Sequence to fold (125 residues):
Amino acid sequence: MPSSYTSGDEYLAPSRIHVDREAGRLEIDWADGHHTVYDTVTLRWLCPCAYCRGEAGMPGWLDSSPTLTPDQTRLVDVQLVGTYALAPTWADGHHTGYYTFEQLRANCPCPEDEARRAARTAVER
Ligand SMILES: [Zn+2]
Ligand SMILES: [Zn+2]
Fold:
């Protein structure tokens, strides 16, 4: 059954956030009932900070396709930033990425959302 998110980009707040450090997973339950699970490698690749993503036209660290070490993909902690974002702390000390809920929902790796993004990309072309 498609979730209510499929129609647009409306902002959604999580109703529950669970960090499973043992399994290396971040789980988010959304207010509309959708369930998102990120493995930490996927999550680290999405890091939106200026260092990872680059800024002012300069490429970021992740643009160089680095080989991520186990420490770089191991979650130590996740802090809530206001009411709009999560800030994970990684075992290598990196903690400057603020993942907005909007970004976390938009990049949800479940098959339904993969299909939705693929369809959107096709339309944009
Ligand atoms: Zn980063
Ligand atoms: Zn999803």
